[in-house]
Amino acid sequence: MASPRISRRRLLASTAALATAAAATRAEAQSTTRLRLYWWGGTERAERTNKTAALYTQTHPAIAIAGETVGWGDYWTRLATQAAGRNMPDLVQMDYGYIFDYARRGALLPLDPYLGKELDLSGFDQASIDGGKVDGKIFGVSLGLNSTSLVYNRQAFEAAGLPPLDWPVTWADFAKRMAEATKAVKTPGVWASSDAGNSGPALEVWLRGRGHEMYTADGKLGATASDMADWFGYWADMRAAGACAPPEVQALDKSDVDTALISLGKSLISFANSNQLVGYQAVNKSKLDLAMYPTSSTTKSGQYLKPSQMLSIAATTKSKEEAVKALSFFVADIEAGKLLGVERGIPASAAIRKAIAPSLDAMATRMSSYIAEIGPRVSPLPPPPPKGAGEILALLVRTNESVGFKRTTPTAAGTTFIKEATDILARG
């Protein structure tokens, strides 16, 4: 059958229509604001974050959000490189231990001018807002409230006839119980605890129990060489007793949920944050639970409540208002709150907490109850970390590893750590 004839007029009209459509597509592509969103975390967090970003772009078709995620161990190195190259992502997940450094370097956008307009924090109490302030200005908004915690394999503890880690457990008692737990489990290649000698939060709790802060209010080191020698010595004794993982096994932990030793089946305990219970449970078949860090006092812990993570905006962003609106959606929108849940901590927004409460599963409910339980036991928020604190955390990892592999002694490590950390702070 012969093909139908197409008139010249019809052909021109069709061509014009196609050209118009193509032009419209190009114009739409050109008008799209593209935002980069950068965070650390495991698989569970990535899924929740990407779903929330997709929800936002569905209702804001002129916005495109590209997600970028890496583990904690690589996160800050990459961010520092991007900051130096003035190529930071628009939206950046930020930690209390780093926000002062980045804000004071001028790398983050002050958010105060956007309050009540692009940024809605009406559901936040003042303490939650203040947690993201540096020198009186808002540079980050809480994505959740949490505290440090032991995430532990309660099912394995119960199966081995071990008592739960109910507070208070002193540091000395913890060492004894971990050595006993490793023997009770009787599984080659599994240790009771991960090695937290490289953990800044664990060290901070230890120091506060001794009456010292990690950093003083004027940005100096609060620890002494004696403190640090005792700290490295404590974990050397733990390794010698089989109470925690040896250094070659601990090296498998890349400071994220998926590679934590408890997730790899190499330990029964990981030192973590309470908001991470959801992520840990998602990759662990055994029933997990939370417990407070060991303590030096049976009446008050060196732990504190803090923003689990914050969302900040790079000062170099070319789309300030659009980035602030997206940030506001992540921290204050109820539908976003339902998608994010409590994986990053208990929401700071009262409206979101109320909205998600009926839907919380057992793990999320446990996280919420943990925060309520420890409230009367924790200490006030410590002085903010000074510039260089991130570099000192990296130094702590290297130094503990050197002690673990017996390249140096705890006493020598304590002296060296204080000298190098002091030099880091002096450089500013």
Task: Describe the overall structure.
The protein is an alpha/beta fold and 428 residues long. It folds into 2 domains: 31-144 and 307-374, 3-Layer(aba) Sandwich (D-Maltodextrin-Binding Protein, domain 2); 148-303 and 388-427, D-Maltodextrin-Binding Protein, domain 2 (3-Layer(aba) Sandwich). It contains 17 helices and 11 strands. A 5-stranded mixed sheet has the order 2-1-3-11-6. A 4-stranded mixed sheet has the order 8-9-7-10. It has a two-stranded antiparallel sheet with strand order 4-5. Helix 9 (225-240) packs across helix 17 and helix 13 (334-340) packs across helix 14. The chain is globular. Mean pLDDT is 90; it is low at 1-30.
Helix content: 40-55%
Q: Based on DSSP secondary structure assignment, what is the total number of beta strands?
A: 11
Mean pLDDT equals: 90
Can you summarize the main beta sheet?
A: 5 strands, mixed
How far apart are the termini? 83 Å
3D shape? globular
* Structure classification: alpha/beta
Count of structural domains: 2
From the 3D structure, determine the CATH topology of the largest domain: D-Maltodextrin-Binding Protein, domain 2
Beta-strand percentage range: 5-15%
Strand order of the largest sheet: 2-1-3-11-6
CATH architecture of the largest domain: 3-Layer(aba) Sandwich
Explain the layout of strands and helices.
Layout: H1 8-31, E1 33-40, H2 43-59, E2 63-70, H3 72-84, E3 91-94, H4 96-104, H5 126-130, E4 133-134, E5 137-138, E6 141-146, E7 148-153, H6 154-159, H7 171-185, E8 191-193, H8 200-209, H9 225-240, H10 247-250, E9 267-273, H11 277-282, E10 288-291, E11 306-313, H12 320-332, H13 334-340, H14 350-356, H15 362-374, H16 389-404, H17 410-427
Parallel strand pairs: 1-2, 1-3, 8-9
Antiparallel strand pairs: 3-11, 4-5, 6-11, 7-9, 7-10
Helix pairs in contact: 2-13, 9-17, 12-13, 13-14, 16-17
